[in-house]
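Model the whole thing, not chain by chain.
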Amino acid sequence: MAEKTVGTPLVKSGLAEMLKGGVIMDVVTADQAKIAEDAGAVAVMALERVPADIRSQGGVARMSDPDLIDQIIASVSIPVMAKARIGHFVEAQVLQSLGVDYIDESEVLSPADYVNHIDKWPFTVPFVCGATNLGEALRRITEGAAMIRSKGEAGTGDVSEATKHIRTIKGEIAALSAKSEDELYVAAKELQAPIELVRQVAREKQLPVVLFVAGGVATPADAAMMMQLGADGVFVGSGIFKSGNPAERAKAIVKATTAFNDPKVVADVSRGLGEAMVGINVSDLPAPHRLAERGW
Amino acid sequence: MCPTFPHLTDSPSVAGNSLTIGVLALQGDVREHEQVLDALGVAHRQVRNGNDLDGIDGLIIPGGESSVIDKLSHIFELREPLIEAIVDGLPVLGTCAGLILLSASLIGAIDGQQTFGGLDITVERNAFGGQVESFETTIVMPLIGGEPVKAAFIRAPIIRDTGTSTVIAELPNGDVVGVRNGNCVGISFHPEVLGESRVHEWWLDTVVANARR
């Protein structure tokens, strides 16, 4: 009898591949999860407070209450992701035992370890991790991440950091693939990533896992821009449920993500959406409050 | 033409043909299916609206979120022309979400979720459970000779009622994970994420090549 093997690298990265072209939405209640599913989210991210609230309320941000995660899992049929603190492998063990479909080892929560990230290989559940550049992405993949999202600056509604990070990652991949074989050793040293992985990215001209964009996406046009910059899909955090009309905005962002190359569709879905989330300019944030700088 | 074929055959019907296969590109693992078609040397194009259906010899409906692909097919007005094409005999291969979208009725659908039809079957969504239950295995498919077929089941569905469709793949415990009915083939699993091309090859050689359109 053929054996069934769970948690293989291809099963882990495979789920991310199924999410491509889609929008993953932050939700804090089962009702919000249902709204997100009805609006066409490919997955929801269960958390206790959206990044905008973590930012304004301060304090230590941790994994959500298991009851909340159970309620959200019970309320939707699409995949449910949940966040663990960077390096907090026990939060990750708890989330796996609750049956979440993906764990986000996230800089949006307060880091639990300022040296090590979670060793993600022993887990059956797949992980998504944030990255601001190619080296960071490759280090996370080396630790077992099955999906990468550029970090952006969560909870701001300012898309400029998301733009910077996806452009940086894409640009570094392009530069790497232009290098000759003998230059890849130094590239690996500079990227602080294993030579084998560096060679693979240089050869294939893309990451070995799916690359989404996150952090500051608040409008349909933001989402379409991230797709045009080469993202496989988008995470929208505070942008939906901190806006005036979450259900309509969620639907509009889903449509714009699919038809990202059609300005008429993006224009159409952008009409009459009501207020976008109140934004914070990233340049006004003092450095210690920039979440993207968490993770190494 | 041989209905079963050897591993990675250079069968003339696949190799030297001038077929164009559409890949439904609303959401999901479009790229992986395109890679399989590239490996087989078969031309393909992405299908995002009704016009894109013109002139294709077959359509692949990829994996993804079935509820999302259903919604997008309404929004981008692809649903009606696609149903018409399926009724008209367009050969279709659906994997995972694609199988769900080809079914006649669903267990575990979200409110208002619809399908395109094509297979008179009942399918249960997420029938194995969540992602931690997702798995890789190999399946003996009598229609496809040689080694067992590599299969990734990712939050996969199971066919609970096969109607008048023919079973083409099942797990050792009897769970039905692949059916064919005329021009439509649906499988619960993803050969494409494992670089397994023989299911596509069989579909091209058997279903697409013999389609009466």
